[in-house]
Design goal:
The complex is a heterodimer of chains A (about 290) and B (about 300). Chain A has about 290 residues and is mainly alpha-helical. In chain A, helix 4 packs antiparallel against helix 10, helix 4 packs antiparallel against helix 12 and helix 5 crosses helix 7. Chain A is globular and about 70 Å long. The two termini of chain A are about 40 Å apart. Chain B folds into two domains: about 50 residues, no CATH class; about 230 residues, MetI-like (MetI-like fold, Orthogonal Bundle), CATH 1.10.3720.10. Chain B is globular. Chain B starts with about 30 loop residues before the first helix and ends in a 5-residue tail after the last helix. The chains are: A mainly alpha (about 290), B mainly alpha (about 300).
Chain lengths: ~290, ~300
């Protein structure tokens, strides 16, 4: 892009001769460079595709043909764990939205002074790895006054709560970016002049306008929750991650099939984010199923 | 929140200085802070408090001095080594790949494809990733068998290779490290303005001079910041390592996992101190990233 304009402007410079010389030299150099960049790309493709290809090839070794897949789809545990993780993901997303949207709205319009504190808290899950979070949760809630980890129901709650915490960083940023892009102040004033209360403003005015941000945050949460292993396994929940882990130890070919399905689910979730378009600028996240 | 809905105060709500007149505008933040305290701060506080207590409950610093014992020290050393190696390797290769797709003259669909792929791959980690590499480079893996059948090379005996070691973990971690680097660095490379290069060339700068004096100084905060972030990303990884090595490689997350399930250190306080050590290292890493990123953003407007 830059290369073509360089010789034309180069003439004015005192060091014109060298400048022209370099750009002239770089003509064959450029195509050589392009070859290098293609090479970098191809090496990356090999590194990234090989494990997936190997997993696929391995899954096909099962006899009879496609047995790894048919066995998987015959396994009630597969669907049960997937359904469990799906339901947990949906509840997590709802909880996260219910907590973050009013908070982000409030911080933006009522208490901007407290923004650094809220931002700091929403960033904490990056500092506290899942294994530490679940460590603390188990120790804290294994004893009175709130022995949640001792019961099945309590453990479901802890799992969802932990995932909700994990979703805070990108849900907050996503919603905050969304609030910035719409004229919330005017919308709020318009709604208030019609006599709407705060809850109604958030439900009927803000939420619909945040659709894109919320969907982006939701799919990211989904991608992380669906395959999460660490927290689910320590809380002994019948989730998809622990199921796959166990399968990996017990069976030969089925884990390959389920791994690919899991990858496909990640792909779908991230693809949906790409499809709905202008998601949060900063999609990067470092928590979740590492 | 319901009080705030009272009609009387509605008119002053979107004022320029919000929350000034009413001392309890904080009430809208109660659900958020209550949740965060209950399910994040309190559990971590429990670990912090426990890390300063000995077995009888008396206040002590022993747990932190005991972190020096061999098992724990080695776990930290291994974790730091793996994180450093994968952060730097992922940083370098990720930068090259990002540069290739943004400035390397590759067709547009390649650029878009790599970026979308990076979004997915940076999220593809944990159990399925560990399994995928087992099928690739494990004892019976596709590549392992291919090398044996085609070239007669048994990498596990002759090459001394083993997937279920530090080296293996590093190869696997790169699968999510590299795409993360691409995702963060690609916009920064794109933000390098053509004018800067033209200006440099006008002044007679060679390509190398342009890189050394202009491009690298601009990109450096982003590059360093991302490498620091990648470090934390690898340091906190548990599922991938646990699945791949069945907890056998001595790294911090494996040791903490064992401590959670069975108090392998025979000292709860020591386990809490180890957890806090991890949080401190993560905090340094994330803070470093944020500070460097803030510096980097000057050039990305």
């Amino acid at each position: 892009m830059t290369g073509t304009t360089a010789p034309a402007v180069g003439v004015r410079a005192p060091g014109a001769s060298t400048s022209v010389a370099t750009s002239a030299n770089s003509r064959p150099g450029r195509s050589a460079a392009r070859l290098v960049w293609w090479l970098v790309f191809i090496v990356a493709v090999v590194y990234f595709v090989l494990p997936l290809f190997a997993t696929f090839a391995f899954s096909l070794r099962a006899r009879p043909d496609f047995a790894a897949y048919t066995n998987t789809f015959k396994d009630p545990q597969f669907f049960r764990s997937l359904a469990y993780s799906g339901i947990v993901a949906v509840i997590t997303i709802i909880a996260s939205i219910a907590i973050i949207v009013p908070t982000a709205y409030w911080v933006r319009f009522r208490l901007p002074r407290i923004r650094p504190i809220v931002e700091f808290v929403t960033l904490l899950p990056f500092v506290i790895p899942p294994v530490i979070l679940v460590f603390g949760l188990i120790r804290t809630y294994s004893r009175p006054p709130l022995p949640l980890a001792g019961s099945d129901f309590g453990s479901h709650i802890l799992l969802i709560a932990a995932y909700t915490v994990l979703s805070f960083p990108y849900m907050y940023r996503s919603v905050d970016a969304g609030l910035r892009s719409i004229d919330v102040r005017t919308l709020t004033e318009a709604a208030q002049s019609q006599g709407a209360g705060w809850l109604r403003i958030i439900w009927a005015v803000i939420l619909p306008n945040l659709r894109v941000s919320l969907l982006a945050g939701a799919f990211l949460t989904l991608a992380i929750v669906i395959g999460e292993y660490t927290i689910a396994s320590f809380l002994a929940r019948p989730a998809f991650g622990p199921y796959l882990s166990l399968l990996g130890r017990d069976k030969a070919y089925e884990p390959a099939a389920v791994s690919l399905i899991s990858f496909g689910l990640t792909w779908i979730a991230m693809g949906l984010i790409a499809v709905i378009g202008r998601g949060p600028r900063n999609r990067v996240q470092v928590t979740g199923a590492r | 929140m319901t009080t705030a809905a009272a009609p009387g105060i509605a008119r002053d709500v979107p004022s320029a200085r919000p929350g000034r007149r009413r001392t309890w505008s904080w009430i809208g933040l109660v659900p958020f802070f209550a949740f965060a305290i209950l399910f994040m701060i309190l559990p971590v506080w429990f670990l912090i408090a426990g890390s300063f207590q000995n077995k009888t409950g008396a206040v002590t610093l022993d747990n932190y001095t005991n972190l020096q014992q061999e098992l724990i020290f080695n776990a930290y050393a291994n974790s730091i080594e793996i994180s450093l190696v994968t952060a730097i390797a992922g940083g370098i290769f990720g930068f090259l790949l990002a540069y290739a797709i943004v400035q390397g003259g590759l067709p547009g669909f390649v650029t878009a494809g790599v970026l979308t792929w990076s979004g997915v791959a940076s999220n593809f980690a944990g159990v399925p990733l560990a399994l995928a590499f087992t099928f690739t480079l494990g004892f019976q893996g596709l590549v392992t068998r291919f090398l044996l059948d085609t070239f007669g090379i048994q990498i596990y005996t002759r090459g001394g290779f083993n997937l279920y070691t530090k080296l293996g973990l590093e190869i696997v971690y790169l699968y999510f490290q590299l795409p993360l680097m691409v995702l963060i660095i690609a916009p920064a490379i794109r933000a390098l303005r053509p004018e800067w290069r033209e200006a440099a060339e006008n002044l007679g700068a060679s390509t190398r001079q342009y890189w050394r004096r202009v491009a690298l100084p601009i990109l450096l905060p982003t590059i360093l910041g991302t490498i620091v972030l990648l470090f934390g990303n690898a340091f906190g990884a548990q599922a991938t390592a646990y699945q791949l090595t069945v907890g056998q490689v001595n790294i911090v997350t494996n040791l903490i996992s064992a401590q959670i399930s069975g108090d392998v250190l025979h000292d709860p306080g020591l386990g809490y101190a180890m957890a806090m050590g991890m949080v401190v290292i993560m905090a340094i890493s994330i803070t470093g990233y944020i500070l460097l990123q803030r510096r980097a953003e000057r050039w990305q407007r």
